[in-house]
Write a structure and sequence with these properties.
The chain has 192 residues and is mainly α. It is built from 6 helices and no strands. The chain has a single domain (21-190), classed as Up-down Bundle (Ferritin).
């Protein structure tokens, strides 16, 4: 209209030529689910501990998770990946895990953070290896995103340790239980 400039819609899609679509779909689907779940965990922790001395620390980690989720929302559109059908379940399970661990106090919330973030860092490392084996140049942008988010998750893990996560009663049992849940969530979210 008007000045003779043509209007055409902008595409947010990534060129699909030559990508291993099943691998990329699985990676983006599960990472989106994981970041969604992490957001719900921190929401649960903030509901219980938001006004405590550890509230600002939890909020800082949650803010990073919100950025991660935003990026994976964008990547889902760009790569045309459907979300896991389990999102409604992760919505509730994540919040319950966050609130439940926070009801154990600051140490309990931090123990949850350590367990989850250690699992996610390991998961991201596996994805980085997969993408490098596939083609590091072709997946350069995705590799950069995953490496940055892995580093953020490792930072959250370390913050949890600095804030007495290991002093939680039955820490090793709690950590192992949460990590088994994370492994199951990863397995299911990749596939369903």
């Amino acid at each position: 209209p008007g000045g003779g400039a043509s209007l055409r819609p902008c595409s947010t899609r990534v060129a699909q030529d030559g990508i291993n679509k099943p691998v990329i779909d699985r990676i983006i689907r599960v990472d989106h689910a994981g970041e969604y779940g992490a957001n719900r965990i921190y929401a649960g922790q903030m509901a219980v501990l938001g006004r405590s001395s550890v509230g600002p620390i939890i909020q800082q980690m949650w803010n990073q998770e919100k950025d991660h989720l935003k990026k994976f929302n964008e990547l889902m559109v760009a790569y045309r990946v459907r979300p896991t059908v389990l999102l409604p379940f992760w919505n509730i399970a994540g919040f319950v895990l966050g609130a439940g661990s926070a009801l154990l106090g600051k140490k309990g919330a931090m123990a949850c953070t350590v367990a989850v973030e250690e699992s996610i860092s390991e998961h991201y490392n596996n994805q980085i290896r997969t993408l490098i084996e596939e083609d590091p140049e072709k997946y350069k942008e995705l590799l950069q995103v995953i490496k940055q988010f892995r580093d953020d998750e490792q930072e959250h893990h370390d913050i949890g340790l600095e804030h007495d996560a290991e002093a939680t009663p039955a820490y090793s049992v709690l950590k192992t239980t949460i990590q088994l849940g994370c492994k199951a969530a990863i397995f299911l979210s990749e596939r369903i």
